[in-house]
Amino acid sequence: MSFQKDFLWGGALAANQCEGAYLEDGKGLSIQDVMPKGVAGPVSEQPVPENLKLIGIDFYHRYEEDIRLMAEMGFKVFRMSIAWSRIFPKGDEEQPNEKGLEFYDRVFDTCRLYGIEPMVTLSHYETPLYLAKTYDGWRSRQMITFFDRYCRTVFERYQDKVKYWMTFNEINALWHFPLMGAGIWTPKEQLTEQDKYQAAHHEFVASALAVKRLHDMIPDAKMGCMVLGALSYPMTPKPDDMIAMMEADRKVMFFSDVQTRGYYPSYIKKYWEKNGICIQMESGDEELLKNTVDYVSFSYYMSKCTAADCSLYSKGAGNLTSGVKNPYLPESEWGWQIDPQGLRYTLNYFYDRYQKPLFIAENGLGANDQLVDDGQGGYTVRDDYRIEYLRNHLKEVEKALDDGVDVMGYAAWGCIDVVSASTAQMKKRYGFVYVDRNEDGSGSLTRYKKKSFYWYRDVISSNGASL
């Protein structure tokens, strides 16, 4: 089966990694503004100059140029995020920041001008810093009220401009990185499982309320959930390893199970019972959870292995989670194992489980690209390695379609080079467009088309036939 005619080809960026202008036009600070080294580094009290995200790639001032480049590649969809603190600078205000709303008006209007459908993530790792410090992020139930006000504001404002929405980016990242994933200011080593499950409950209620608001306010719009798609293979066929795989996958699927099915699964209730976890719920919470998402989206960069005793094996690297290294797979420069067939497996796994349309919200290869003379008076990147990575993954998407999976579309991550979320580096590049910015913050920010730019343009124009 080939790609359907309405397949949504495109790419993805996140506001905190691309926009810059971190205090411009009334924007408040977000948690990303005080995370200069990404998830693994220290958190500062105030922004520091070495945080490359403060300028990003200056999308805030260059969005017209960047969207024009997307249009030249033929994008049908642009998955992006709204910076919550650009709309509500502290997060708990009664009234929004008009200049922030106007910026996204311009972005969406530019997308529409070029026939690109914006797909908007409401919260992509950029909780307002004030909410993190004052309320401890999603540990507080008050966050539901603040998030609801934010959602109602943007749904009302952009009801004629945005059809596709998502609530929380990689919501299951809360488990490993609670500050980035859920705006929780308390250090993660001080958090109990009770704390994290309670925060997840608050996010689930907020997500379900956002689904309800969207369906009430914009009946033809669609809301999706978004999870980190990192399923596991058993390291061996030993039954103990199979059970370990089942348990590892449940930690991933728990988040999408609730948002897609509308209730807490029996396996998690039993886990709570065995471990003395008691989730505080208010009257109406369980009924509200029945407002389920319209589609399921996920990021996919790699697969991983697991075992009953992981200490027996080498550990693999990962983009927020990691497992046991698979001896059958090659690795990227950052040690992420490359597994195109794992994408087909993941698509089938999700669709078998939910029978809802799927959207691949992120997929791509981070590499230390080198800008070279293109022989025609300009510069380019000869990124055949990226082309090979993407081609192999897209071929597996095509096989999943042939398996009967309903795949809405595909967004290549970091379609224009951005600052890395996990490491805050600039040298880990994903884009079809090279941005002249260096690790020390220098650079002209000039955009250069890579070899993959033209390759992806041909893939889209041929609707995948050129693969």
From TrEMBL:
InterPro entries: GH, GH_1_N_CS, Glyco_hydro_1. GO terms for molecular function: hydrolase activity, acting on glycosyl bonds. PROSITE patterns: GLYCOSYL_HYDROL_F1_2 (PS00653). It comes from the Bacteria. It is an enzyme of class 3 (hydrolase). Its EC number is 3.2.1.-. Belongs to the glycosyl hydrolase 1 family. This is Glycoside hydrolase family 1 protein.
